[in-house]
What does this fold into?
Amino acid sequence: TEGLIPDEPAGRLILQVVNHTAVVLWSQPSLHHKKRHAIAQCTAHVPDIVFGKYLDTDTFNTMLLSNFIDTEARSTLFKVVKSMTKEQSLNTNDDGVSQVLTVKQGVSLAANVTFQNPVPLRPMRTFTEVSQPESNFTLRVDEHANCALFEADGGAWKNAAVSSIKSYLQFRLDGQNVAVIA
It folds into this structure.
C-alpha cells in the first residue's frame, strides 16, 4: 500500500476487520459515485480444528498439542485423555451344570486426574499476531474411548478476536490516515 494512504483527512482509507480471519483495506470514495474499492485483503491461515466430532485418543491428543496454545487447562486435558483406557473383560463361572458370564466394558482412567467441564482453552483460530481468545469447551468421551470437544461459549470468542485485531491494527497504524472499523 506504499503511496496509497493519502495525507488529507478527506481522503481517509478504511481498514475493515471483516471477521476473525479477514481484514480489507478500502480506498477513499470515488469522486462521482462515492464507491470504495478494495486495495488490499488479508486472510488468516488457521489450522483445521475438529469440534463436535469424536476422534481416537491419538488423533485427539495430536490435535490438542498442535492446534491449541499451551495452558494449564490444555495440559490437564492432555493428561486426562492420555490416561484413558478402554476395558473389556469376561469372567466365567462354570459348575458343570450352569455357566455364569460376567461382561465388563467401558472407559476408565489409568490415573486419578481432576478434571472439570467446561474447560477454558485457547485454540489457534485467528491471526497469529494477536492473542488467541480463550473460550470454554466441553469434553465428551464415547463408549469406544473416542474424544470430542464441543464449543460451549456461543461463539463469543469471535467478538473477542475481532476486538483484538482492531486494537492491534489501531496501535500499528497510529498517526496514519486510516480509520479502523470492526
